[in-house]
Prior knowledge:
Layout: H1 3-24, E1 27-31, H2 34-41, E2 47-50, H3 58-61, E3 68-71, H4 75-86, E4 90-93, H5 100-112, E5 117-119, H6 134-142, E6 146-153, E7 156-158, E8 166-168, E9 173-178, H7 190-220
Parallel strand pairs: 1-9, 2-5, 2-6, 3-4, 3-5
Antiparallel strand pairs: 6-9, 7-8
Helix pairs in contact: 1-4, 5-6
Amino acid sequence: MSKQAIQQALFPTITLGFLHTVGLLNRRIDLDAHYFHSLYDQKKPFILSIWHTNVLCSPYLNRQRNIAVLISASKDGDYINRVVHRLGNTSIRGSTSRRSVAALKGIIKHLRSGYPVAITPDGPRGPAFALQPGIIIAAQKAGVPIIPFHYECTRQWVAKSWDEHRIPKILGTFVCSYGAPIEIPAQLSADEFEARRQAVEKAMMANTHRARAYAQELVTGRRPSQAAQ
Length: 229
């Protein structure tokens, strides 16, 4: 058996084992999850916007939802693709840097078919927390809202990578924060488009800071300032 074949066989199993372990051995607190469930339960399509720092656990934390995740067409993407599908979601192959037009068309087609899509608007290479315009175009063309999502764990490693990736430990608490749906008008001038891009980026960062602050308050023993919903 070739090295590549071994990697293809082991990667999904190891990754899924890790995700299920940290999922079972951590508590979970949701903040404003009703934003997500309201649209999902009504079978209304939307874009779940997730910073690249949250790529590892987001498919697990939003599993069994048939959410289409944008995954690169590389060999590494093949491994991730298998994990995503085994978690009850689906995929669109491509990236924001290569095959971007094809990937964008695939996203819009999936949304227009009535299904949600997950996008990392600062991926695949960053800069971190800088929202690229593709997600605005997709929401605009498909006529769907954007919902920010961010998680922090009270016990986690923070990787020394460009995206400061979050890797949870066990026996902690996941804080999963959902932002209010953001509508994108169908017609925007260039200046209006940039203003809307900045507004979505700002909303994403506000949601990120909220999750981090809540998790930190749990760590320090202070009462969280906002009740979980």
